[in-house]
Structures are given as C-alpha cells and as structure tokens.
Design a protein that fits this description.
By secondary structure, the chain is α+β, with helices and mostly antiparallel strands. It contains 10 helices and 8 strands. The chain is 49% helix and 20% strand. Helix 2 crosses helix 3. Belongs to the band 7/mec-2 family.
Length: 293
C-alpha cells in the first residue's frame, strides 16, 4: 500500500533512489488550560458531580476545599486535562472530587550531590569528580506536564553534563579552572531543563580525586621544584653575603684600628655568653712581628 501511494504521488518507489521518511508526530501540551473541550460526556459528568456536591454539601465541602503552602503550587487535572488558570496557590483552592485530580509541586530550592563520575580527561588521565547542583521549579505546570520525573531527569542530566564537559578539559584545567567549569555546567543544565520548568541556580565542583600513582608523581614534582627554589635562594644569599664581606674587608683594610675594635667586640660577645672556656686568638700583628724577629 505504501508503494502504491508513493507511486501515485509521483515520488517513485524506494528502489529508484528515493528515501521514505517516517511521519513524525509532534505532541503539543496546552499548559495554560485555556480553550478546553470536555465533550458531551465530560460536561455531563461535571454536571452530575456538581449536583452530588450540592446534595451532600456539608460533607462534600470538606473534600472540595484544599490548602497549599506559600512555597507550594497545585496543578489540577480535570477529566485528564489541565484545569483553566494554571497552577493554584498559595492558599485555598477548590476541586471537584469526582472529576479533579491535583498534584502539589514544591517551589523551594533543592540541592543534590552528583555521584563521583569516572572521567577520562583530554590528556588521557582518569579522574573521579563529584559536584553539587542547586535548582528550583519555576513553572509548576511544565514540571508536571512536560516530564515524568523532573527531579530524576535533572539528576541524570547533571551526571552526563559533568562527564561531557570535563572530557574536553585537561587535568591542569580541571584543577585550576573550577569556577569556569561550574558556570559552564550551570548554563548548559539551565538551558536543557528550561522546557521542564526547572531553573538551575548554581553548580559547584566538590572534589577531584586523582589516582594514587599520579598523586605521588605530582608530590615528587612539587617537592623537586621546592628544593630547586630553595637552592637558588641559598645560592643568592651566599653571593650577597660574600659581596658584603668583601665590602667590609675593604673598609677594614683602610683603617687598621677597626680590626682591633672588631677583635674587642668579639671578646665582649664571647664573655657575655658565660662560657667556662674562652679561647683568645692571637692578633695577626703580633704573629707577624714574631716572624720578623
């Protein structure tokens, strides 16, 4: 039958190089609840329900009146369709027990931990990264009508987004550029969850776990770098000290009495230490005079 229909329309059979595309059906959900047609049976059932409520008014009023908190909204389905006016609340709202069904949606910010994900970075290093996501429901009707489980879908999407984003980063970028990674994940998740009525407020990368061998290698590299810097600093200190000693020697050579004053100052500092044994070095001038004699 499909071949005959295509032939009649002038498209030709698939064997002639024409590809047959399956028809795509797009489902549109009226989240506003306007222009609802219940049909004859629907209106009859609604009328019957209203008559029952009027006849059993004292008892039925307890079943019709519902209350939602300030941070909640109620999405009402009447005969399987979204009720007119969208989500109800906060405060009191009315439902028809026989035909209405409602679901409460919490609008407060929710946080959840993304389990540690084994990720292969751009430079072929396997790491385990976990994160925390903060989100809230900004459209209660869309979170009920457009997705079966908004919380579960957001959690799964956060895991895949974390793996996909970190897979394009090197290890050094993951360790040093967490803020950029968090903002990128937040914008990606927010755009993907917008049709679900979800607003992703914040994403934070909590911890990056490296393999034990890589941790040891990085620790050895850091220690070697610190030792190299320490040697350079010590060498610079020795060079500066030698320069200062040379300058001091030049000053003392210009004034022979300064050597005697330095000798007396050294004896004073030795005697202040209260040592039991004090060694007096012979002055160089005395030794030179003895050698001359």
């Amino acid at each position: 039958m499909e071949m005959e229909r295509l032939t009649k329309e002038g498209e030709g059979p698939p064997s002639q190089g024409k590809s047959v595309r399956a028809s795509q059906v797009h489902f549109s959900i009226n989240t506003s609840g306007d222009d609802i047609e219940y049909g004859c049976c629907g209106w009859a059932l609604l009328t019957l329900s209203m008559i029952i409520i009027v006849l059993t008014f004292p008892v039925a009023i307890c079943m019709c009146v519902k209350v939602v908190q300030e941070y909640e909204r109620a999405v009402i389905f009447r005969l399987g369709r979204l009720a007119k006016g969208g989500a109800k609340g906060p405060g009191i709202f009315f439902v028809i027990p026989c035909t209405d069904e409602y679901r409460k949606v919490d609008l407060r910010t929710v946080s959840f931990d993304v389990p540690p994900q084994e990720i292969l970075t751009k430079d072929s290093v396997t790491i385990a990264v976990d994160a925390v996501v903060y989100y809230r429901v900004q459209d209660a009707t869309m979170s009920i009508a457009n997705v079966e489980n908004a919380d579960g879908a957001t959690r799964l999407l956060a895991q895949t987004t974390l793996r996909n984003m970190l897979g394009t980063k090197s290890l050094s970028e993951v360790l040093t550029d967490r803020e950029h990674i968090s903002s990128g994940m937040q914008s990606t998740l927010d755009e993907a969850t917008d049709p679900w009525g979800i607003k992703v407020e914040r994403v934070e990368v909590k911890d990056v776990r490296l393999p034990v061998q890589l941790q040891r290698a990085m620790a050895a590299e850091a220690e070697a770098a610190r030792e190299a810097r320490a040697k350079v600093i010590a060498a610079e200190g020795e060079m500066n000290a030698s320069r200062k000693l040379k300058e001091a020697a030049d000053v003392m050579s210009e004034s022979p009495n300064s050597m005697q004053l330095r000798y007396l100052q050294t004896l004073t500092s030795i005697s202040s230490e209260k040592n039991s044994t004090i060694i007096f070095p012979l002055p160089i001038d005395m030794i030179s005079n003895m050698l001359k004699k």
